[in-house]
Amino acid sequence: MDTEPSLYTVKAVLILDNDGERLYAKYYDDTYPSVKEQKAFEKNIFSKTHRTDSMKCISIHTCTHTFSGEIALLEGLTVVYKSNIDLFFYVVGSSHENELMLMAVLNCLFDSLSQMLRKNVERRALLENMEGLFLAVDEIVDGGVILESDPQQVVHRVALRGEDVPYSEQTVTQKASFLLQVLQSAKEQIKWSLLR
């Protein structure tokens, strides 16, 4: 077993619903190369962790947990996880990985989503905002390397990236506003070139 320090600390980020079905999964190495193996791992991890009552909340209004998370060793991997209402969040690392680093990723992901979803971290809200989830995970972890652990920074960067909508997906108002900005800029450049 290789115990050399490595930047590649995260093997997977998973979000499952309260039935153990995959809502989001991103694997960063080939520990589970096929979808079949990934689904089997997810089923196993869910069956071992979903009965943890200390993490369950019945409703948003009565929830008083701090969502500190839990740690498990499963199939030779370190798994940190937490649940909220009808979602289960998992961050997976190797068996020798620092649990605090993995927990920092988990907390950053959960706190970022909580801010982006206005504290409504539940299945339906998450499904309606999958683009934000994809962007947030990409800001936190890239190729298994932890990039960010501050949820404020993640939310800020996701908001900036969300503004960069491709021209083909912009509304008529957005396109008109963009064209007006381009015309105004061209007008200013022509004015200054004539004044020289």
Automatic annotation (TrEMBL):
<protein>
    <recommendedName>
        <fullName>Coatomer subunit zeta</fullName>
    </recommendedName>
</protein>
<keyword id="KW-0472">Membrane</keyword>
<keyword id="KW-0968">Cytoplasmic vesicle</keyword>
<dbReference type="GO" id="GO:0000139">
    <property type="term" value="C:Golgi membrane"/>
</dbReference>
<dbReference type="GO" id="GO:0006886">
    <property type="term" value="P:intracellular protein transport"/>
</dbReference>
<keyword id="KW-0963">Cytoplasm</keyword>
<dbReference type="GO" id="GO:0006890">
    <property type="term" value="P:retrograde vesicle-mediated transport, Golgi to endoplasmic reticulum"/>
</dbReference>
<comment type="subunit">
    <text>Oligomeric complex that consists of at least the alpha, beta, beta', gamma, delta, epsilon and zeta subunits.</text>
</comment>
<dbReference type="InterPro" id="IPR022775">
    <property type="entry name" value="AP_mu_sigma_su"/>
</dbReference>
<keyword id="KW-0813">Transport</keyword>
<dbReference type="InterPro" id="IPR011012">
    <property type="entry name" value="Longin-like_dom_sf"/>
</dbReference>
<keyword id="KW-0931">ER-Golgi transport</keyword>
<comment type="similarity">
    <text>Belongs to the adaptor complexes small subunit family.</text>
</comment>
<dbReference type="GO" id="GO:0006891">
    <property type="term" value="P:intra-Golgi vesicle-mediated transport"/>
</dbReference>
<comment type="function">
    <text>The coatomer is a cytosolic protein complex that binds to dilysine motifs and reversibly associates with Golgi non-clathrin-coated vesicles, which further mediate biosynthetic protein transport from the ER, via the Golgi up to the trans Golgi network. Coatomer complex is required for budding from Golgi membranes, and is essential for the retrograde Golgi-to-ER transport of dilysine-tagged proteins. The zeta subunit may be involved in regulating the coat assembly and, hence, the rate of biosynthetic protein transport due to its association-dissociation properties with the coatomer complex.</text>
</comment>
<dbReference type="Pfam" id="PF01217">
    <property type="entry name" value="Clat_adaptor_s"/>
</dbReference>
<dbReference type="GO" id="GO:0030126">
    <property type="term" value="C:COPI vesicle coat"/>
</dbReference>
<keyword id="KW-0333">Golgi apparatus</keyword>
<keyword id="KW-0653">Protein transport</keyword>
<feature type="domain" description="AP complex mu/sigma subunit">
    <location>
        <begin position="9"/>
        <end position="163"/>
    </location>
</feature>
<dbReference type="InterPro" id="IPR039652">
    <property type="entry name" value="Coatomer_zeta"/>
</dbReference>
